[in-house]
Amino acid sequence: MRKFILKRLFYSIIIFFFVMLIIYALMRCLPTSYIESLARQRSMQPGSKSYEEWMAQLTSMYNMDKGILLGYFSWLKDFFRGNFGDSWYYTVPVVQKFHETIWLSFWMGLISMFFELVIAIPLGIVAATKQYSRTDYTISVLALAGISLPTFFFASLLKLFFSVKMGWFDLFGLVGRNYEQLSSWGQFLDKANHLVLPILTLVVISIGSLMRYTRTNMLEVLNADYIRTARAKGLDEKKVIYHHAFRNTLIPLVTIIGGSLPSLFSGALITETLFSIPGIGYTSYHAMVAGDIPFSMFYLAFLAILTLLGNLIADILYAVVDPRVRLS
After folding, report:
1. Alpha-carbon gap, residue 128 to 253, rounded angstroms
2. What is the pLDDT of residue 283?
3. What count of other Cβ atoms lies within 10 Å of the Cβ of residue 287?
4. Could you tell me which of 159, 147, 145, 141 has the C-alpha nearest to residue 271?
5. Domain span(s) for CATH 1.10.3720.10 in the chain
6. Considering the entire predicted model, what is its pTM?
7. Closest Cα partner for 252 from 292, 285, 215, 208?
8. Which of 17, 131, 158, 326 is the most buried (most CB within 10 A)?
9. What is the band of 213 on the pLDDT scale with cuts at 50, 70, 90?
10. SS3 53
């Protein structure tokens, strides 16, 4: 186990190096830049220097006068030293802004993932055990609808019906107008009320693929020879399905769940932007639009590390859910 983990960590470091090199090169080639916007803004002030002079000064100040390779190695050295710099757009340390926004997205992602697993996996199992029945067709239609619905379209429908027509929820934001006048419990309920529609959006658009994935793998297992043998021995159908079949369906599900680790922290960029929820997705979107390289690089590096760890955890969990799998 130790040898396997160390080997995978070594490969992960190499992958991380090249992934971040590509991301850094893309960030340097963005069509928009905070430095250009700031230089243009300062050059328009009365008696100020020209745009070219401001560009030269700001480029040197932010170490952007180096080439992509030299700039990347400089960023990499600071990153491993824990020096993440200040956000150009938010004018605060990168870690501070990240810490202010990440936990809201984390709780949104955790709650939506909980409901996704609770809803999608049982429905996928039911659809597989009742193949070609009305129940199977109904669940399949719902799954395909969830997969096909664009996030912005479904979120707009929810806002139109529940906010505009019914008036149950606010259209935008995390808190209401009278938030400061509420008690602590009232403030909690106010925030929870504003998160209902974003979480509902995340759940609906994500359960379809997991539902179909569970159904497909469950059908494959139910048609296996050892399942027929178990039924021929007279075992209870529930024991056949939930003890023998479902345990073997867990292996591909572990891949999905392990790969979902980054989604807990990555934030729902489209959903958070549509509902103006100040999570990490919303924050990183505005940072990237403004060409905020320090914050964007830290955020993307964080996601890359989480993705690599998620894959490693999934590989280790294979041996936990199925004793036939050996890490060696």
Report:
1. 15
2. 92
3. 25
4. 159
5. 101-321
6. 0.81
7. 215
8. 158
9. confident
10. helix
Cα 198–Cα 97–Cα 306 angle in degrees, nearest 5: 70
**What residue type is 282 in one-letter code?**
Y
Cβ neighbours of residue 88 closer than 8 Å, sequence gap 6 or more: 34, 35, 38, 62, 290, 291, 292, 293, 294, 295
Q: Which pair of tokens denotes residue 170?
A: 């606010």
* Tokens linked to 98: 């990240």
Quote the CA–CA distance of 267 and 97 in Å, as a whole number: 14
Nearest alpha-carbon partner for 20 in 59, 60, 58, 74: 74
Q: Which residues pair with 93 in a beta bridge?
A: 86
What's 279's DSSP letter?
S
- The fourth-level CATH superfamily of domain 101-321 is MetI-like (1.10.3720.10)
Closest C-alpha to 299, from 312, 314, 286, 309: 286
Q: What is the pLDDT of residues 301-322, one digit of tens each?
A: 998 988 888 888 777 776 666 6
Cα Dmax for the chain: 92
* Rounded CA separation 211/291 (Å): 38
